Amino acid sequence: MKKNMAAKGVSSPALPDKPKLKRTVKPPQRVIPMNHRSKQNSELDSNRQTETMTSNTENEEEIQARRQAEEEEKEKQRKIEEARKLREQREAERQSRLRLSKNLEAVRPTASVSGKQDAAENTPVIFDYDASYEPAPQTLPGILAADLECLLLTIHLSSNGEIILHRGKTNKSVDTGVGLSASYTVLLTWLLSLVPENFNFLHGRTLDQEDRSSMFVPPFYVLGLQQIWLDEHLCLVVAVTPVEQFDARYVPVKSKKTKVKDEIKDSSPFQQHVSKYLSVNTLHTVCPWLQDMVSVEVTCPKKDKSIPQSYIYRPPLPNITTKPLSTFVQVNHDPQAARKVFNSSVGFFFQTVDSDETFCDQIYNESSVKYDTQNTMSLIYKKIFCEPRSMMAIFNRILQEGLDLSGIRLLYPTQQLLSLASGQTFPASAQGDVNVLNNIGPVLAIALRGTFARTIWLDAVGPSDPALARRTDPNSLCALFGGLSRDECLLFCPRNITRVHTELTRWFGGRVPPGGVIDVGTPYTRKDHLRSGSPKRGKGKRGHESRDEKTVVPPHRPPAALTATTKNDIFLIISPLVPLRAMGIILSTCQRRGYQIRGVRRSRLTTRKCNYLGIDSSVIGVFCPGSSGFDIESATFSETTDHQAIAPSTFLQIQKENATHSAASLIEAFMIQLTMQGIMNSIQGNTEVDLSSKHLFHAARFSDSLLATLGGDFSKCIDYDIEVNPSSYIVPKLYTNPEVEEIVVLLLLGHEVLKSCGLFVGKLLNLVPYSKSPVISTVKDGFELLGIKWLPSLSMSQAKEVTPFEVGDRSWKENIHTLTSEPALVLVLRSVGAFKKLESAIPKPDKKSNHMDFLMSKTAEEAYSFARSFFMDRELFCDPQSRPLLPYLPQSRYLTGTPSNLSMSVMKPELLKESIFEIMQSGPRPLTTVLLIKPRAVKRHLPKILKKVVQESFHIIGLRLELLDKEATISLFDEDDMDETQLQRHIDHMTSGPCVLLSLQRENAVKKLLDLVGPKDPVAARRQSQFLWRGVFGADSVLNAFHVSSNYVCGILELNKFFPDGLCCEITEDLKTENITCPAVDNIIDIKYQDHRSLVIEDQTDSIDSSSPRQLLLQTTCVVLNPLLSKCLIRSHLPSIDIIEGLINNGFELVGSRMIWFNKEQAEHFLHLIDAGSFAQVPTLLSGPSIVLALQRDNAVISFDSYLGSNYGSESLIGKYGKNIIRPADLKQVMS
C-alpha cells in the first residue's frame, strides 16, 4: 500500500509498517517412531499453545504501540494546525495593525492648528504595534471615590512653556519677555510637590492628631496633571482634591452683597477656598525653595597669562512672574469637569500649535529638508518629583539646553501595565492598589522636543546606573537624583529611537479599542488662503476672518497629549563689543539649538534704532560705541539727538519652533561659549563696566515694521541687469600678491551645508565652539570676515556670474538651476595668501555627488566680481581684532592698543571707514621699515647682509653709516624688558663701532623683515630655521647682528629719528601722510662749504708706527655710485652691492656712507668740483638716489682703479661699472 501511495506521489508517514511474524517452524522428521507418537503429539500441542499465547501478546503490544503512535501523530497534527491558525491569526492581526497604522498616517495632520503653516518636523503618528494595544495608564487614581470632590484647574498656554493670562481673554504672557523665564517650570514644580505622599485618605483612613500637628498642611492635593491640547486650546489641566485637614466650617462666607457670577454663588466651600488661596498668593510665596537658587559660576578653563583680568560669568537667575496665581490659574466650578477631562482618551497625533509670534513669509524651498528635530522622553518617579529642589533642577536643565516641554502627564499605571513592565503579579484588591500607590506612586512622564533632543538629553541624564554616573559624570541628572543603585534608578530615559517611540506611545498615545474603530476627528490641513500672521494684514482682516469662522461649527477632535509649536522668526542683535571672529561660535550655537539662519546684516546702529528695538537705555552706549554724546564706560546718551555708532553691529534673523520662548536660553549659551573660549576675558579687559549678556546680545521679536527699520530685506542685493547697464562695465585687471593680504569670496550652497555651516565658519575664523572633544581648525591664523550675507536663492544674474561652468557645458544648466533654487551663505574673507589658504581649507567635493557645496573665487578679478554681485560698499567692514597683519600696516596709526586687545573706545573712525572695493582695486602698496646692522655684523658680514636684503626684493631708500651715542642706543631698547646689566652690554656693543642704518621699502616690509631676521636670540633662531638672519650672522642675544622696527608705528618713529632729511624714493600716500620728505633734501651737501666749513688736518705722526708702511701710505677717498648702479640689472642683483663687496674684499675700510638724491644745483656743483668737463651726467644724477662712500686704504686715491681690476677687463668691477663710479683723480678733489 505504501508503495502504491508513493507511486502516486502521496506521502504516508502516518501509516504503520506491517508487523513481521516471529513464528519458528521446525522441519518435518523423515522417520517418525510410532511408539513416541502420543508423547510427541502432547508436546506439540503444548508448544502450539505457548506459541499462540506469545503471538497474541506480541500482537497486542504492537497494536497498542501503533495506536499510541497514531494518537501522538494526531496530537502533533493538532498542534501544528493550532500553530498554523495562531500564525494566521497573528499575521492577520499584524496586517490589521499595519493597515491601521497606514490609515492613521493618511489622516495625520499636515498643517498647524490654524492651517497657516505646515505641521512641525518629526511629528509622527503616536502608534506602536504593541504599546497601542496595552492597557492605558490612568490619569486619576483608580480608587478615587465618586463622592470625593475633585476640582479642575486650567492654565492656558500660548505655546509650549509659555503661560498666558486667562483674564481679559488675551494672549498676553505672564512674563516680561526679558531674560530666561521659569514661571511655567516653577508652577509645575509647585503643583508636583502637592502630590500626596500617602494615598490612604482615598481609602477612608484619617490621620492621627499627632500626625496632623507635625506635618505641613498643603492647600490641596494634586491628583492629576497633564499638558494637553483640548477644545482647540493648549492648556495645563490639574485635578485637585481637599486634604484630610480641610474643614468647610472654617471657610469664610461673604456677607457683603457683591455682583458675582451664578456659578461662583453656587460654588462649594472647597472651591471658594481654592479661589481665595490663588488670589492672595504668588509663585514666590508658595515656593520657599526659590530662595535657595544660586547661579553656577562659569570660567575659562584655559588660563591666559597675558590677560591680567579673568572674567567669571554668573548666569542670571530665571525670571518668575510676581502676578497672583489667580491671574493665570482658572478654577472650573463644574464638579464633574475634572473627571470628564482626565477620563477622556487622548488621540494618536501630535498637534502643531500656532504661537502668537510672526514669521517671515519668504519661500525657502525646504519642504524636504530635515533639521534633525528629535523627540525624547523620561519617566520620573515620586521620590524625585515630590522633592521641589530636585525637580526644579531637572526643569532648569531642560531650559538651559533649549528643549521644549512638548508633553507632561502624571500617570497611575494600571496593575496590568506594571505587570507587563516588571513581570510581577499584583493583587487585585483595593488594599493592594493603595499599597502600590504608596510604594511606587504615580509616575511623571515628560516629553521633550528640539534639535538633537535625544542626544542632548541623554548627555544630560548620564548613565542609567547612578553609581556609575557618579563616577564618570558627577554632574549628570542620574548621578544627582537617580537613587542609590541601578535597581533603584528613579529617572528613566530610553536610549534608542525605536524605544523612544514605543515609550512615547505607551505614556502619551491613545489606545485602540477592542472593536478597532478609532475616532480621529477632522485632521488639520493647510489653508493656503491664510497669511502667516504677519502684521501687514491689519486688525480688520483678522476680525473679518473671525466673523466668518463663527458661522462654522468647529469639528470634533480628540485631545492630544503631545504638541509642537510653529516656527517663528526673531532678530538677534550682536553688539560691536563681540569680536566678529566669534561668528562661527554664534552660528554653530544657534544651529545646535535648532535656530536656522534666515538673514544676516552688518550695519551701524543709531540711538533711535536702539530705542525702537527695545534695547535698555543703560546699554545703548555699548551698542553705539564711540559716537558723540556717548560714553561706553558710563553708558549714557543724549535723547535729543540721533547718533550713529562708529562700529557696526551684527543682525541675525533666525527661525525656530517656539523661537521667542527659547531666545533667552540661546543668549545664555552664547555667554557660556564666549567665556569658555576666553573671549570674554579680552572683552572685559577693554572696559570698566561689568559686562553681562544684556551688554552683548539683544533679542527682538520679528515684525515687518522692525525689519523695515533695520533696512529692509537682509538678503537684498543690487541686480546689475536691471539697475546698471552691464555692457558698460568691465572688471579691471586687479593686482594681487600672496605675501600680502588678499580678499576672496566663498559661497556655501545648499540646505544640507547651511544647516550646520557654523562649525565650518568657525574653522575658517580659527575660533570654534568649546566642547569636551576639541575641534581642531585646519586654518592656522584664520581669516578676517569682511562681509556675510544669507540668500534664500541666487538670482539668475548672480548665478551666471558665479557659476564655474561656461555656456554650452554639460553641467551649466544643472548648476544654474541649483544656484537659483537653493539658499547660499556668502562670505567675504581677507588673509595673507587667502586664495591658497582657502582652497586647502575647503573639503574636497564628493565624486559620487554632482551637487556643489562650496564655490570660491579663484582670482582677484573673480573675487571683485562676486563681491560686487552680492554686497554694497556700506555692507563690508574690516575687523581689526581679526587682522594679525594690522600692527605692520599704516592703519595701525589709528590704534592706541594692540589688535588682540582692542576696544571700540580706542579706535578712531578712520580705521573702520576704509572701502573694501577701493582696496581690491588698488595696486601695490610699498611700505618702509628700518634695519640697523650692529657693529660686529658691519665689520664681518656687511656685503652678505646687503645681498640678502636685495634678494628679498627690498629697495634701499636710505643708507647711513653712523656711530650711535648712548642716548640713541637706549631709545632702541625697552628698558622694562631687561635688567641694567643686560642693557649696559647692549650699550657697550652699540657704541663700540659704526652701525649701518638702512631704510627698506617693499610690500609688507615691516612683517617681512621681522620674519626674516627671526627671534632675538640667535640660538632660538637656529632652532627655528637655519635660514633666519640672526641665526646666520648673530652670536648671542646681545651680538644678534640686527635691530629692526617692531611694527609700523615704531618704524615711522625710527625713520624720523635716523633719516630726518627724508628718504631717497618717490613720494607715496603713506609717506605723505606721515610727513616724510621724498625725495630727501640732503642738508649736509653745502655748495658754499668754504664759507661755512673748514678742513682740519690732524698730525698723527706721533701715534703712527714709522715701521708700518701701510700707515704711512694710508689715504681717504670719496666715491659716488650714480643711480644706475642702484637699479637692478638682473633680478635680485644690485651692482652697487657688488662694488661695495669688491671694495671691502680689496682691503678698503668703509668709514662713511650715505645715500643722497642730488638736485640740479648740487649735481652741477659736484661735477664742477671733480672737473667732469661737462654737465652731461646731470640727468643721470637726478634720476635716482646715489650712494656716497668714504673709504680708507693705502694709496686709496692713486691706486683705486688698479685695486678694482683693469679698465680693459670685461669681468672686473672697473670694466663693468667704472663709468658709473664717480671717483676723485687726486687728493685735491678728495678734499673738495
Automatic annotation (TrEMBL):
Protein family per UniProt: Belongs to the NDK family.
Basic and acidic residues bias (residue ranges): 63-78
Regions annotated as coiled coil: none
A Pfam match: NDK
Chief location: cytoplasm
Residue intervals of the Nucleoside diphosphate kinase-like domain: 928-1066
Region (Disordered): 1-78, 519-560
Stored SMART domains: NDK (SM00562)
Name this protein carries in UniProt: Nucleoside diphosphate kinase-like domain-containing protein
Keywords on record: Cytoplasm
InterPro entries: NDK-like_dom (IPR034907), NDK-like_dom_sf (IPR036850)
Top-level taxon of origin: Eukaryota
Protein localization: Cytoplasm
